[in-house]
Amino acid sequence: MSTPSDANPESGDHESGDHEFGDHEFGDTAGEFGPPTKDPWKSFRGVMAGTLILEAIVVLLALPVVAVVGGGLTAASAGFIIGLAVLMILGAGIQGKPWAMGFNVALQVILLFGFFVHPSIAGVAITFGIVWGYLVYLQRDIKRRMDKGLLPGQRD
Long-range pairs for 74-79 at CB < 8 Å and ≥24 separation? Predict the structure, then answer.
């Protein structure tokens, strides 16, 4: 016997627990899935923005290396390093755009030209190039999983 507190006036159920987890009201058919409950791109954009900020810091830390080990800073070498760091910091704010990953990869290619400023900058470019290669892989994997409905929360 059910009590008034057990009744669910919206669904017509008169016993508690009838409709909590077992039956789905929205047409539960095999193979159907909805969007993820949490936006995976929101956190991925944060990872990309954070990576760009960290990279900008590392690039700026190359200034004393080039000044001491590289034979001194010139206007061109300082402008290249500072300008690239500024682009990275500004780029952290545009990670919501559809072309953001292309922009990030283009920054890595430009950073490779830092070899002509000092070989240590090419080392930074190679290191972060590996990181960005992994992020490109992750972006494709998240898209593939989302399209197949394999992300957590898509089959709840």
Answer: 76/117, 77/117, 77/118
